[in-house]
Amino acid sequence: MSTITASICILSGNKNPIKTLNLSPPNSVSNSSSVRSWSSHVIKTSSNSNRLSFNCKSASTIPFVSSKNYEFSDGSSEVELRLQLGAQDIQSYRDISVDANDNSLKIRIQRYGSLITLIETDRLFEKIKPAETIWYIDDDQLVVNLKKQDPDLKWPDIVESWDSLTVGSLQLLQGTAIFIVGDSTEINETVAREIAVGIGYTPLTTKELLETYAKQTIDSWVLTEGSDSVAEAESAILESLSSHVRAVVATLGGQQGAARRADKWQHLYAGFTVWLSQTEATDEDSAKEEARRHIQDARLGYSKADVVVKLQGWDSDQTKSVAQASLRAIKQLVLSDKNLPGKKRLYVRLGCRGDWPNIKPPGWAPSAGDDATSRTVSRVDYYAIFIGQDLGSTDATTGVPHQHPTRGDKKK
Hints:
The chain has eight helices and 19 strands. The chain is α/β, with parallel strands linked by helices. It is elongated, with a radius of gyration of 24 Å.
């Protein structure tokens, strides 16, 4: 399916904010398998809770096709989509096709012998129960009810986009900080700032804090005292930042960065860690295989990160795409275990002792000479996303859950 890049503009800040989206039709129509729902005319009173009104002419960095008006509302266990049929001249309810899958939706109408796509997306905000999809006509509107797989998750929008992720991430993070790690300090800082601005967190950079403290640049510090000295100093900075909430912290890249060293992760576990990893892989499969190999190398500190975003090259124009991929991966991680934010808070309250994720009772301390950060721990989900260089600022990433082998696990 074609991927379209555009923008969303919030035109009204009232109770029912209006968004304008301008869409171009795709070059081709997706033929992905789905559950097709055909229905008779049903008259039903709809809920007006948290409804967003849209004038759809385009979409926001998401695979999305529409040329008609729609309204969206979240009614707890289900979400509702209302599309204006207007002058479509529907002759029969058989002229309407609603195809739903776990994470995709396609709505088409037949007019004068040809199919017209009203909405098509393979990136719903979260998964639905396609077999329980219901649609009906209410006056001049087509109403589609989608049953959510997770009724506790509030959907800011029907699709997963930068705008919906920045809003939806707040309910999932619950104030937990985010640490951006990787070999490029510049990329870490750029993406961390984008995420922080998007979700309303405080952007922090360990480079700036270290240079302010030392009154010299990181490069000169490395030349005079060596990379080990810088890594130790950054580790001390991370200790002081570990108790911060609602912050996005960009860490140092390269040999001088604490995050690269497996024995310096004690305080990074306090927040959700995103590893921005540049790759020479040319496709998603090879990037995932590369991620698996890195995960299995316990010597590399980055392999301890909660999620990884694989970048095929880098350009500043990709910043929002990388930031969006990072939030998407964190979202999937938290949805796999909703206790993670609370567990992170407990880890901080107990003093960031390095016993993540198997947190020990109060009073526990690693024995002398025992490095808590390299201890054998249980397996956790590891989420990887690949961004190809030719994608520019479009969102065409695919999140794939991986098992995270920690030190002591055997390769299978």
